Every structure is written in C-alpha cells, then in structure tokens.
C-alpha cells in the first residue's frame, strides 16, 4: 500500500501499474490522482476514446470487463475508472458481493493495455484500508493507494491555491490557521473557503472570521459522537469515545462537552417547537446558519423528554467521576450504554 505522494512520484517516473484501488475520504484528492494517471497515459486528443468512467453503484461486471477488453484507439493505453466502488465495503448485499468476487478473479487476467482504477470512499474519517478485509485481500493483485492527509508544506500550498483560484488572497498566518482548523478533506475545504469568502464580503479574512465559521476539531469530534448516538450506532459511538479518551486523558472535559451539546440541542428543540426560525436561532446562539441546520437535524432525532434524560445521565456520570474512585473509562462506556437504553 502506498500514499498519494508515492503515487505521484511513481507516475512522474513513468511507472504506471495495470490496476489500482484508490481509497480514502477525500474525493477531490482521489480525482487528482486519477487525473495524474490519465494525463500520463492518454494523449489529450484521444481522451474521449480511451478514457472510460463507470459508476460503481450501477455498473455490472460485464460493463467493466467490456470496457477493459476493448483495445485502445490509436494509442498504447486506455484508462477505465470505476468510481463509487461500494462493492469494496466489507458489508454489502449479495449483488455487490458477487461483483466484488468477479472483479477479484478478473484482476489476474487484465489486458496489459488497460489501466483499471477503482476508487472507494470511506464513510467515516476513522476508517483505514487496514480495517477493510476486502481491500487487504487485494494488495497482492493490485496497487492500493490510501489518500490520507498531505504533508504539511504541500497541504498549505494546495489550500492557498484554492483561495487564489477563487480570486481571494489570504494572509500567511490566517492561511495556516484555517488549514489546521478545517477538516483535511478538499471537498469540505472548498465549501468552507466559499463560506469564508462570502462572509468576509470583499474585506481581508481574519482569524476571528475563521473562528466563527469553522468548528474546532474537538467540537467536531463531539458533534460526530452525538450524531452517532442520534443514529443509534453503538459500535461507532464507543469507537469514537475510546479514541477521544486515548488521545486526551480529560474525562471531565469530554463529558462536560457532551452534556453541553445535549443542553444546546434541548434549547434548540424548545425554540423550534415555539416556532423560532433558523435565522433567529442562529442569532441567539451566535452560530452560522449551516451549523444551526445540522444541530436542528440532530435535535429532531430526540424528544424533549429524551434530551432531559440525556443531560441527567451525563450529570450523574460526571458526579460519579468527581466523588468516587471508579474506573473512568468503564464509567464513560457505561454512560453510553445507559444512553442507548433510553426509550
């Protein structure tokens, strides 16, 4: 398995494999990897004839095989890209499992003139290729490329290029502050840059603007945790909680943040029931509208009574951690189970 930097280095040297599996959260970065292969393999004048894209959600094995088997037109290579290749999910239905098995077998007999690129987007920022049994099993047959975070200098440069493409200059200090605070996903980064540019409305972007529009990573993690709870995803909730506890031994701070998030959802729930609109709620909480939209969606998954009980569960757990010598991690996990048992 290699990363994007290694892939780019290999392509520059003219080393292009017969097949690839691209995976990660950042589709914009993955598309950049695809473009590198396409630009190196196919003459631009023959792009329409020798570059084929197939939707992995709707394509069949016959579609993939036919695209790969057809000889390139007036060139040495053709590139076939299967995007949204959800048949790489460990848990999928019978039809996708069948497609995966057929592709697995076909990779051994792929024509030498075809470069097959299949890419799969992870659902969660904590997913990795090592957690996927299907992707691990394919490493001997194809080149797996994991599109994780770019190295810092390159990452900063790429973020700066996006600002320039959109016709907006940003100071070096503000650029780095924004780049470190935003999620390292270029699809998200582009949307957040659009929001910043719109919010600044022609003036210089400041650190205060960034603070107002971009969530802190810790707040983002707590938001994800509450979201998993609202979707009744026990395993994901525990996995994220354990990750938070392992990276930061601050049990009281974490539980306080969880409780505060439930409190905010409770207050928003009451305002919504009283007929308040989103602009009014945004003003009261001093939050951007798009953040309020997400919070309203979350609070709609709970009743007022449930949110009251959730705050009580958090408070009881916080008091136990303060007043007794209990195992803190175990007590936090017990809190999660109490939350999911709540009717």
Automatic annotation (TrEMBL):
Residue ranges occupied by any DNA polymerase III delta subunit-like C-terminal domain in the UniProt entry: 219-339
Taxonomy, superkingdom: Bacteria
Pfam families in the record: DNA_pol3_delta (PF06144), DNA_pol3_delta_C (PF21694)
GO molecular function: DNA binding; DNA-directed DNA polymerase activity
Enzyme Commission (EC) number: 2.7.7.7
Reactions it catalyzes: DNA(n) + a 2'-deoxyribonucleoside 5'-triphosphate = DNA(n+1) + diphosphate
Coiled-coil intervals: none
Domain DNA polymerase III delta N-terminal per the UniProt entry, residue ranges: 20-143
Cellular component aspect of the GO annotation: DNA polymerase III complex
Keywords: DNA replication, DNA-directed DNA polymerase, Nucleotidyltransferase, Transferase
Any one GO BP annotation for this protein: DNA-templated DNA replication
Similarity field: Belongs to the DNA polymerase HolA subunit family.
Protein's name according to its UniProt entry: DNA polymerase III subunit delta
Gene source species: Clostridium sartagoforme
Lineage: Bacteria, Bacillati, Bacillota, Clostridia, Eubacteriales
């Amino acid at each position: 398995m290699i990363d994007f930097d290694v892939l780019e280095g290999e392509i520059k040297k003219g080393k292009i494999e017969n097949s690839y599996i691209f995976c990660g959260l950042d589709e914009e970065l993955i598309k950049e990897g695809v473009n590198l292969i396409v630009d190196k393999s196919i003459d631009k004048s023959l792009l329409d004839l020798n570059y084929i894209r197939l939707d992995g959600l709707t394509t069949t094995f016959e579609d993939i095989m036919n695209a790969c088997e057809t000889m390139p037109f007036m060139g040495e290579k053709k590139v076939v890209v299967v995007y949204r290749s959800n048949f790489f999910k460990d848990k999928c239905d019978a039809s996708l499992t069948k497609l995966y098995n057929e592709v697995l077998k076909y990779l051994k007999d792929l024509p030498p003139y075809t470069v097959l690129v299949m890419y799969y987007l992870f659902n969660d920022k904590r997913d990795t290729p090592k957690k996927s049994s299907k992707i691990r099993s394919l490493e001997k047959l194809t080149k797996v490329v994991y599109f994780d975070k770019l190295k810092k200098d390159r990452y900063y440069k790429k973020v700066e290029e996006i600002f320039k493409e959109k016709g907006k200059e940003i100071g070096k200090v503000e650029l780095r502050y924004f780049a470190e605070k935003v999620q390292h996903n270029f699809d998200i980064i582009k949307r957040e840059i659009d929001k910043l540019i719109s919010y600044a409305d022609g003036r210089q972007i400041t650190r205060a603007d960034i603070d107002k529009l971009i969530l802190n990573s810790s707040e983002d993690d707590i938001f994800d945790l509450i979201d998993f709870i609202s979707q009744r995803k026990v395993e994901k909730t525990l996995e994220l909680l354990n990750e938070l506890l392992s990276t930061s031994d601050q049990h009281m701070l974490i539980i306080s943040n969880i409780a505060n998030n439930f409190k905010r959802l409770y207050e928003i729930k009451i305002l919504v029931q009283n007929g308040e609109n989103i602009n009014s709620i945004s003003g009261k909480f001093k939050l951007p509208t798009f953040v309020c939209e997400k919070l309203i969606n979350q609070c709609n998954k709970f009743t007022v009574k449930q949110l009251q009980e959730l705050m009580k569960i958090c408070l009881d757990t916080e008091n136990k951690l303060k007043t007794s010598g209990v195992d803190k991690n175990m007590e936090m996990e017990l809190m999660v189970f109490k939350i999911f048992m709540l009717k």
